[in-house]
Amino acid sequence: MRVSYVCRYCNHMVGELNRPDWTLHDAEWRLGLASLSPVERSEWISYNEGSETLTVQTVCDWCQRAVETHPELLVEGNPLQ
Ligand SMILES: [Zn+2]
Question: What are the tens digits of pLDDT across the range 45-54?
């Protein structure tokens, strides 16, 4: 399966893993996702069975800096587009 890390603000792909031998269960354990609550899981990760891709939302360096510099941007929702 594939694992894609995508920035939740700008949709930039931060990183990608390709592990043909991993199951979804393996990926969740190895990536530390098994400890997420059901709400966090539904918010941060999604799995596409057709393409066997697990998408994990994260925050890229650029957006991290932008948010740290301008925390008020978060109030607006999705202002970085
Ligand atoms: Zn970003």
Answer: 999 999 999 9
Centre of ligand 1 from the C-alpha of residue 80, in Å: 8
Cβ(2)–Cβ(18) under 8 Å? yes
- By C-alpha distance, which of 32, 6, 28 is closest to 19? 28
Ligand 1 centroid from CA 5, angstroms: 11
Q: In what order do the strands lie in the sheet with 2-7?
A: 13-18, 2-7, 53-58, 45-48
Cα 1 to Cα 75: distance, rounded to the nearest angstrom:
35
The alpha carbon of 67 and the centre of ligand 1 are apart by a number of angstroms equal to 10
- Is the overall model pTM greater than 0.90, yes or no? no
Q: What is the pLDDT of residues 56-76, one digit of tens each?
A: 999 999 999 998 998 887 665
Whole-angstrom distance, CA of residue 59 vs CA of residue 5 = 9
